[in-house]
Write a structure and sequence with these properties.
Length: 340
């Protein structure tokens, strides 16, 4: 039997206690198991990620929320839509009328007058051209001088200039009439009316004033993530991204993406070369064509918040813990020269 150390002879009660063999065995098993678990975890692979938050947006400006503006000056006589109503491209939104109710009548009368001037000018040109022909024959026979023939040619030029001026006046008038007839504002594309500027109903609106705002239907979507500047130098187009959309239940394990739940796949589309005002860099993420599609726009509309994890290199957990404790950047491995 092993002898007790000399200093324990002063503690007879302690020396009399005998630890159960089962407890000793369990203690050794827990200690050895913990040591083995730590050693194993140090070599378990871990996928590094660059996390960021952002929102869903439309890369095409035509797919973003857009303002429907007045084409001409006037006031809104009638609304054809309400807030939240779905519309198709070409559906009427509002009808504008000019403040002068007799404007179109006066424009019609002015058009008749200009058309009469054009008819008179055309007749005058024909008469002047016939005079030129007669004067040429008379000059060849010696009945009139050469100067009379040149004066007739000058008269033809003056009559043609008056005819061209009258036609230009008619063109300008037609532009004005077309603008007044374009007072029916229509939807530029399929979508939903978000807001109507009801204040314009009884007030004067100018060309370009906003009448309503339209959210396009089923736009092409991308995700813009704001990532830390320390990681942006390591992000390249085509890298895989895992996304968690607002309102969509998801559980993410950044180091083990295969066990994540409720996440959607994407890939880096572009990285902004300059930082935003907040100091973070914007990364655009598009859908990965080889992965399941993102939820429909009805569930994930434009502007919805997103959490994203850009997948980087695969390292061991031990290295990752060492990197985090030392506040080092993510691992970077230069691509092979033969790869694209």
């Amino acid at each position: 039997m092993l002898s007790r150390p000399e200093h324990l002879h002063h503690f007879p009660t302690l020396t009399s206690i005998q630890a159960p063999r089962a407890a000793v065995a369990v203690g050794w098993m827990l200690g050895i198991g913990t040591l083995l678990a730590v050693l194993i975890l140090l070599y378990v692979p871990w996928v590094q990620t660059s996390a960021g938050t952002g929102r869903v947006m439309a890369p095409n400006p035509a797919d973003r929320v857009q303002a429907i503006t007045a084409l001409v000056q006037g006031r809104v006589e009638h609304w054809y839509v309400e807030d939240g109503q779905r519309v198709r491209a070409g559906d009427p939104i509002a009808r504008l009328v000019d403040n002068d109710p007799f404007l179109l009548q006066r424009l019609a009368a002015e058009r008749e007058q200009i058309e009469a001037e054009i008819a008179a000018a055309e007749q005058a040109v024909k008469v002047a051209e016939s005079q030129v022909s007669q004067t040429r024959e008379a000059a060849e026979k010696g009945f009139v001088t050469r100067r009379n023939f040149e004066a007739a040619q000058i008269l033809v030029a003056e009559r043609r200039a008056r005819l061209a001026e009258a036609k230009a006046k008619l063109s300008r008038l037609e532009v004005t009439v077309n603008r007044q007839s374009a007072q029916l504002v229509r939807a530029p594309r399929d979508g939903r009316i978000l807001h109507i500027n009801a204040a314009t109903g009884g007030t004067l609106v100018n060309a370009g004033d906003t009448l309503a705002t339209l959210a396009p239907h089923a736009p092409a979507r991308v995700v813009e993530l704001m990532v830390d500047g320390r990681d942006v130098a390591l992000i390249r187009p085509g890298q895989p991204v895992r996304l968690a959309f607002e309102g969509w239940p998801a559980v993410q394990f950044s180091g083990w993406p295969s066990v994540a739940h409720g996440m959607f796949d994407g890939r880096v589309r572009a990285v902004d070369p300059s930082a935003q005002q907040t100091g973070r860099f914007r990364v655009l993420v598009e859908q990965d064509p080889g992965k399941p599609a993102w939820p429909d726009a009805e569930f994930i509309p434009l502007g919805a918040k997103v959490r994203g994890f850009i997948q980087m290199e695969t390292v061991s957990i031990g290295y990752e813990l060492w990197r985090i404790l030392n506040n080092f950047p993510l691992e970077f491995r230069a691509p092979n020269p033969g790869t694209t």
